[in-house]
């Protein structure tokens, strides 16, 4: 069975929860202060909705429920997980500012948690690289791939993922890690980047990754 047969962006019994999560993240995003003023992407709900929903369409209900609980708990204790995600990215893109103004104020991750996250990140970076090799035009529209490619103006897929995983509770990360390990153990492996991008292009009106790739090539 192909990736495109296994996944889809159509409605299912979990979509109400997915929509709730995306809206909750959007609300936190609106409260995220950006150096230099409000970022243009903070006013682009359609793109935010498409990108985040495409990711959550790859998640099963237990993981969705756990992350929804993380968001609720962050509101209760005065954290903003979206702000924290972007702050954690600055460990690579602006390390001095991160060390001075961010790291002292966010939860510190245990060494074993960091090690487990890095194994997940290594797998997902490999999947993203594989996706780019099969769909180079769509790959060009993605973030740069690795942390080594970060600049002050460009944050890589690897760094973004590291920032996001760092905001998950232990319970949510346990479920996320299990999902990645399960996908990696299948033969063939189930590439979560490919499934996420399939959801993205379907939400954008394309039937398949091949159709979206051809449309990019025609531009």
Characterise this structure:
- The protein is globular.
- The chain is built from twelve helices and no strands.
- Residues 1-10 have low confidence and may be disordered.
- The protein is mainly α.
- Helix content is 66%, strand content 0%.
**Assembly level:** single chain
Provide the residue-averaged pLDDT: 92
Largest sheet composition = none
Question: Given the C-alpha coordinates, what overall shape results?
Answer: globular
Order of helices and strands: HHHHHHHHHHHH
Helices, by number, come to: 12
In whole angstroms, the N-to-C terminal distance is 31 Å
Approximate helicity band: 55-70%
How many β strands by DSSP?
0
Return Rg in Å.
17 Å
Unreliably modeled segments: 1-10
Strand percentage lies at under 5%
- Secondary-structure content class: mainly alpha
Key traits:
single chain; 219 residues; mainly alpha; 66% helix; globular
Structure, briefly:
The chain contains twelve helices and no strands.
Ordered list of secondary-structure elements with their pairings:
Elements: H1 3-6, H2 15-30, H3 45-56, H4 61-77, H5 81-93, H6 95-102, H7 111-134, H8 136-140, H9 157-165, H10 170-185, H11 192-203, H12 209-217
